[in-house]
Amino acid sequence: MGCCACANNAPPSFMYVKKLQEAIDRNNVNLLKAIREEIAKEKLKIDINETFIKIQDIDMSPLAYAFWVGKFNAFHYLHKKMNANLLAMENLYIQQGKHPLNILCLNGNLDILEYYMPIYMEKESLEVSALASLSNEFIVEKKVCLTPIPLHLACEGGNIHIIDYIYKYFKGKPNTPNILDIHYQDINSGENCALIACRKGNFPMVKYLHGTCRVNFRVINSRYENALLITAAASKKRPLHNYYDIFTYLINEVKLDITYMHEEILLLLENKTMIEFFENELCKRGIVRSKAEVENKRKIIKNIGQRIRCENTFNNLKVNQGIREVDDNTYSEFCSSELGDLLK
C-alpha cells in the first residue's frame, strides 16, 4: 500500500521521466509526440521547463538534456511543439556555472549550434541595444566573462566543424562578440586557438587555422612561450603522439622565429627526428648547437650554481659560528665579573 501511495502522490512529471529520457536518447519525435498527446488527453499539469534529471551533477530540464546530448530532432520538437523555453534552459545552465555555447562547442553538436546561434545572436543584439540606450553610448562592447571561451573549447575538443561554422558565420560581419572571435587571446593564459591546437597536437586544426582563418601563430602566452616551445613541451608529455608534422609546419610554412628560446626548445625535445630537424634548421641560420651541447652547458651552470650555494652556506656557517663564539665569550666575561662582584 505504501508503494502505491507514493506512486499516486508522485508529481506527473516524475511519472514521465523515463519516457522522456528514452524519447530524447533515441532522438525519436514520435515518442515525444505520444507523450505530448497523453499529457493533453489526461490534462496533466506538467511544466516542461522543470528539471527532470541530473547528469554529471547538473540539473537538466528535457530541453537542456536534449541540448547536452546533442539530439537535434528531440530538441527542436521540445522547443517548437512542446513549448520548452530556451531562455529558461539558458538560465538553468548559467545558474549552475555552465554556458550553452561552451557545451555545444566542446561536445561538437553542430546541428543544434546552427539552430541556436541565430537565436542567441538576436538576443545578444537586443541586450546590446538596451545597454546602449541606457548608457547613451553609440557603441557598447560587452566584456568577456567566459574563461575559456567557446571557440577555445572547440579547439580543445578538436571540433574543426564547429570552428569552421562559427568562422564562416561571422566572416565579413562587424562587431563579432569576443567569445566567438576566432582571433581572441585569453587574458589569463595568453592562449589563442593557434596555441591550443599546437598544444593538443591537432595538425589538421593547425593547418585550418593558419591556412583558412589566418589566426596569429606568432603570439606569446603568459609564460612567454611561443608555438614552437609549446609544441616541443607537448611532444615531451605525449611522446607517442605525432608532433613532428606540426613542428615542421610551424617552421617551414608559418615561418616562426626558431632562434627564440631555441636552447629551451632543444632541452624539451626528445623525439630524435624532431631534434635532428631543429638542429639542422638552427645550423642554416648560423647557430651551430646540438641538444647534447646545450644539456652539458646547463649541467655546468647547474654545478657552478650548486658550488656557489655550498660556499655561501659554508661562509654563513662560519659567520654564525664567529657570532656564537663572541656571544659565548661575552657571556663568560660577564658571568666572571658578576661573580667577582658578588664575592667582594
What is the global morphology?
elongated
Radius of gyration: 32 Å
Strand order of the largest sheet: 1-2
Structural class, from secondary structure content?
A: mainly alpha
* Proportion in β-strands: under 5%
* SS summary, helix count: 18
What is the percent of helical residues?
55-70%
Order of helices and strands: HHHHEEHHHHHHHHHHHHHH
Distance between the termini: 105 Å
Biggest sheet character: 2 strands, antiparallel
Low-confidence stretches: 1-10, 129-144, 330-344
Rounded average pLDDT: 84
Number of strands: 2
Report on the architecture of this protein.
The structure is a single chain. The chain is elongated, with a radius of gyration of 32 Å. It is mainly alpha-helical and 344 residues long. The longest helix has 53 residues, at 291-343. The model is unreliable at 1-10, 129-144 and 330-344 (pLDDT under 50). It has a two-stranded antiparallel sheet with strand order 1-2. A hairpin with a 2-residue loop joins β1 (53-55) and β2. It contains 18 helices and 2 strands. The protein has helices at 2-9, 12-15, 17-25, 29-41, 62-69, 72-80, 86-95, 100-107, 110-135, 150-156, 160-170, 193-200, 203-211, 227-237, 244-252, 262-268, 272-284, 291-343, and strands at 53-55, 58-60. 27% of the residues are buried. Helices cover 65% and strands 2% of the residues. It has a domain at 1-97. Pfam families: Ank_2 (PF12796). InterPro entries: Ankyrin_rpt, Ankyrin_rpt-contain_sf.
